[in-house]
Amino acid sequence: MKQLYQIHAQIQISGLQSDPLISKSITHFCALHPNGSLSYGRLVIRKSNNSLLSSWNNLIRGYSVRNTPKQALWVFLSMRGRGIRPNRLTYPFLFKACAAIGAIKVGKQIHTDALKRGEDSVVYVQNTLVLFYGSCGKINYARRVFDEMTMRTVISWNSIVSACIENDRIKDSMELFVRMRDCGFEPDEVTMVGLLSACVGLGNLSLGKWVHSQVIEKGLIVNCKLGTSLVDMYAKCGDVYCAGRVFDRMTERSVWTWSAMILGFAQHGCAVEALALFEKMNGGAIKPNYVTYLGVLCACSHAGLVEDGRRFFHEMQDLHGIKPVMAHYGAMVDCFGRAGLLREAYTFIAKMPVKPDAVVWRTLLSACKIHDVNDYSGVGEKVGKSLFELEPRSGGNFVMVANRYADVGMWEKAERVRRGIRDRGLKKMTGVSCVQVGDSIHRFFSGDDSQDACEGIHLLALLNGLNLHSKMVDYEQSF
């Protein structure tokens, strides 16, 4: 920027500052160069009396991609105040800015403006519209924009697939992928990243392996982002071995890659491997982030390394300046709870700078049920009260407390809590489990016999019982 300041000073001395092409070049550098100053570019365009639309577009683009999306919208308002009309290059970055801050009302107004000017039918404007509505949780609007597109690109399909995944429409995202292939569009690395995210949402390892096979079959480049998605998918779908294989073969890794592998090890009880990988990461140039430390704290919890957990929790803040989020506090409570340090866990929660959520309290309540079933410490009683105050309409909390009383024979207290559930008209969320058979995933709800295969399942259980009984009879007769 120093050289630009000097050049601009010479332009001012020479009296060429009114040339709109010169202003355009200055704002282009300020907005799009990594070392450019957006504030300086904004000053230049504000002082110019005959600025070009492209100068304003560059500034809007610069603000939208540099994590200052609100400023992009202010620049747009200033541009309109000057009487300058936007074009098809203006709208995409405005929609990206609105998506970044969830400005649904402003985005709709800009959409209306684009509609009036006939720019809403441009493919790259429509692509960002899909992104905008999907990011703001308006998936039906995103589908409407997509369905009305007369021309689509791979980016169009990637945008709607990602929008469906972000809004938990996992089944829709897979159906759209099939449609994409049927329409003759070949998926790219971005498509595969989205599909792997869908596999994580479904918890479907077989589908994830199929996506990986498509990556290999099509010869796609496993870049850092795609490789990280593969590691994350394998780890979260239960195959930590394959996650490690993919991780080891990657030539380029980001902090997210390391974090996904560390967290994967930790969540599968491989605490030693998680901490060893963390030490290896610290030996390189990559600095850990909040996800990395979440994996480290989970590893300490599973391995019973309370002192190490304390050290890492303080190191995260003091050495790296990472502010703990609720998940970090929950991991520390779990670490104390698994070790039976119930009073220490309760004191830790009481000293938290943020209000603990229900998950943190339930974590400690579960630990109380294991390590202090008779509640000699009195922590369980306090935790139960805190849960009732925080979530007075959650039937699951009442059931947990009632079960804790029942486990130690306090039937009157257990019945009193259960009566409270009935009096309040509360219901506990039905328990559900999933079983994968071949290529299909079957979900079973507690007390629900509506599955088509239930009769076969009950028959199989009966046959297994009879088989066991006959073997026991044969065994007794042999003596």
Q: Which helices and strands appear, and what pairs or packs with what?
A:
Elements: H1 2-14, H2 20-32, H3 38-47, H4 53-65, H5 69-81, H6 91-101, H7 104-116, H8 123-135, H9 139-147, H10 154-166, H11 170-182, H12 189-202, H13 205-217, H14 224-236, H15 240-249, H16 255-267, H17 271-282, H18 290-303, H19 306-318, H20 326-338, H21 342-350, H22 358-371, H23 379-390, H24 395-407, H25 411-423, E1 432-437, E2 440-445, H26 454-477
Antiparallel strand pairs: 1-2
Protein name: Pentatricopeptide repeat-containing protein
PPR repeats: 52-86, 153-187, 254-288
Pfam family, one: PPR_2
Your description of this structure?
InterPro entries: E_motif, PPR_At4g14850-like_plant, PPR_rpt, TPR-like_helical_dom_sf. It comes from Rhododendron simsii (Sims's rhododendron). This is Pentatricopeptide repeat-containing protein. PPR repeats lie at residues 52-86, 153-187, 254-288. Keywords: Repeat. The chain is an all-alpha fold and 479 residues long. It has a domain at 271-321. It is built from 26 helices and two strands. A two-stranded antiparallel ribbon has the order 1-2. A hairpin with a 2-residue loop joins strand 1 and strand 2 (440-445). The protein is globular. It starts with a helix and ends with a helix. 38% of the residues are buried. The model has no long low-confidence stretch (mean pLDDT 81).
